[in-house]
Amino acid sequence: MTPPTATAEDVRQVPLIPPSQHRWAEVIHRLEAGGSMLPDTPENLQQIIGIYKAYAVPMDFYWRDLLYIAERVFLNPLPAFKYFPSQAYLDLPNSYAGDQSKLRIWRGGEKAHPELLEFMAKGETGNMPKVLHHLWHDRINMEFAEACMQAMLWHQGMGGRFYDYLETEAYRANADRAIKTYFRNNPLMLGLYKLFPEMFMEQVKQMSYYANLGLFWEVMAPVFFEMSDIYDEGGFKGVPDAMNFLVNGIFAVAGRPIYHHVYVGDECIEVIPKSEGFTWLYEAALPYVEAVFYRTAPFRGTKSYNAQAYQVPADQADFHYGILYADVFPVGSAGIPPTLLMQDMLHFLPPYLKEMYKQHKRGEEDQLIQLGITFQRSMYNVTSAVIQALRCALLYPLDDSDPEHLMANRRFFEAQMDRFLRPEARLGDIQNQDYR
Amino acid sequence: MANIIETAKAAGCFNTLLTAVEVAGLTSALESPGPFTVFAPVDEAFAALPPGTVQTLVDNPPQLARILKYHVLAGAHLRDELVIQPEWTSLEGAPVAIRRAEPFEVKNATVVSADVTCDNGVVHVINRVILPG
Known about the structure:
The complex is a heterodimer of chains A (about 425) and B (about 130).
Chain A: H1 8-13, H2 25-32, H3 42-73, H4 87-90, H5 114-122, H6 130-135, H7 142-155, H8 162-166, H9 169-182, H10 187-195, H11 197-232, H12 239-252, E1 260-264, E2 267-272, H13 280-295, H14 328-331, H15 337-346, H16 351-358, H17 367-394, H18 403-418
Helix pairs in contact in A: 2-18, 3-11, 3-15, 3-17, 7-11, 7-13, 7-15, 9-11, 10-11, 11-13, 12-17, 15-17
Chain B: H1 4-11, H2 15-23, H3 27-31, E1 36-41, H4 43-47, H5 53-59, H6 61-69, E2 72-74, H7 79-82, E3 87-89, E4 95-100, E5 105-106, E6 109-118, E7 121-126
Parallel strand pairs in B: 1-7
Antiparallel strand pairs in B: 1-2, 3-4, 4-5, 5-6, 6-7
């Protein structure tokens, strides 16, 4: 009897590198096989796509209003109407959707989404003047968008060169020009600027982060709408497909300029000109993921953190309060940023998600928490896309035949997973479908 | 001998790179005395990027220039000199890692043809577009 010989198939199946010994080895091997941190199940796919749709509608408001505030409201000392973007901003053509777009890879219209406009008109209460909707808090919760912007401002050096630029003489000179032009008919504010120049500078920096986040989300809104449309047409076979769509999207717009223009009447002051070369990937997307998904801040109103008992880290770099770590149950309380987003998404849930939430836990009673956990799953998928995009940009293909390259990929994935060794990380929870 | 731009034109496999350099307004810089070291991605390297990537950059010359400058070092450095040091500062400002000497690898790209000497510098042909980070 001749001994069995290895077939070509067997040879292919011999792994070129040994298995990972990391605590999250199972997830690492899935990433190495082209998957996501989120397990590939039909329900996970349905949950994440449904929530992307529900997220895209308020996001269409967030980016428009963020740009409106950065460019028009600017340093208004009494910005009572900053959440009332002008019609021009509701009609502002999205740079990556609509026929006027130079890069027409996602469908969708250029102006504010019809579901958003319908909600802005009616809200939960019915047709009322805008100001009553606002006072009754029956509106899109822009406070959530501002909390994300503040997280980016506060954590500062999260990669890219944006924050460093805010410290340069060139930026200060541009900001100075913007302040003086904006207040040219307001001697009181100009007097205050002379007395407290740094306070005004800090406000302009914050405005630059408004612009940064607005330009970031301007891209994400059409991406999420497109994903929902593709899913409705039966286009995604699984979670990895959805992740790869995001990876391609990240590359497609990586070079999109990040800038801050201020308009005083018809005059445009380029506080951060496009010619600085700041890009969507390096100056907006990566700092956003780091500051918002991972770090943010302990949310006031969820539970009482006692800083003196070291419940809040002394080192800001140890802050890990982002969605990837959040305990969504206490987060589901009124008035705090993550719940504001969940409330926003609740208005635009696709019917299949509403039905799903009714069938689990306490049904409609705790659907804010259920959708929060869906959102957490979906953001683990977005983070997976960012990790795979970075691997693709800086390292090697998953099917590379060089063991040294595969080990470099392995070290990168393991370093990323090290961030989920913290006890608060929800990576383990999302592996289980019963986590709702 | 020809300069970097002339050498790239003569090679015939850098059409995308040459167009990008032109759009970014860097042609005259690469025709100047320099000298420079250029890691030049072949056309296939640009074609391998996901759809839209190159178009977005071409639509935005300052951003394109930043990525292209990441492929350029000041001074003319041959392979033997480059492999001595693990990192070199690019004209973009971010470091370019020399990951391996044999085969010669720059960042995650493999050098398919090293030490193409020109009037104003050296070109190393690479099989992938390299990105800062």
